[in-house]
Amino acid sequence: MSGPSLAWDYSDYYRDEMGSPLRRSFIFFRQAIDAGRLADIKLITNDIECRLSTSGKRNINLDPGYLTLAKVVLASTKNYSHRIYIGKGIYAEITLIFREGEYRPHLFTYADYASETVRAIFEKGRQFMRGSTNS
Question: How many whole angstroms separate alpha carbon 130 and alpha carbon 122?
Fold first, then answer.
């Protein structure tokens, strides 16, 4: 399942590298991954980003992660206080937690993931993962 294409205008972080305006989309797979493979998956997506780069600048940014009924976890190469090292130079963070009937952000959740629009997309992804289309 693919979410809608959305404008990504939360910061200028990627502007020098990728240009502007930026768009983003989320892709959900019903088949769950083995969470223990997240570091390997992040290394694969980093390689894809490199292969699709032009003159050393990325044309795409892939942020792999996984969704469970309880949380959304993202992989990163950046170490911060709220991220857990999972091996091979990769860290994981719980970006959203499912509580009181919806995904909710917490202290370190990026503003785009904390937005109602993105959280609603992840709720649809959660329903898709469960094999239903209704809440």
Answer: 12
- Residue 78 placed within a domain: yes
For 96-115, how does the pLDDT look when each residue is reduced to its tens digit (9 = 90+)? 999 999 999 999 999 999 99
- Quick check: is 121 in a domain? yes
Which residues have C-beta within 8 Å of that of residue 60, sequence separation ≥ 6? 48, 49, 52
Is-cis flag, bond preceding 21, omega within 30?
A: yes
What count of Cα atoms within 13 Å lies in the side-chain half-sphere of residue 124?
A: 12
Name the nearest CA neighbour of 31 among 120, 128, 132. 128
Tell me, yes or no, whether 21 lies in a domain: yes
d(C-alpha 75, C-alpha 67), whole Å: 12
All residue ranges of the chain with pLDDT < 70 are 132-135
- Is residue 135 included in any domain, yes or no? no
Please report, for residues 11, 18, 47, the alpha-carbon distance to residue 55 in angstroms, rounded to integers and kept in the order given. Answer: 23, 11, 15
Phi and psi, residue 51, nearest 5°:
-65, -25
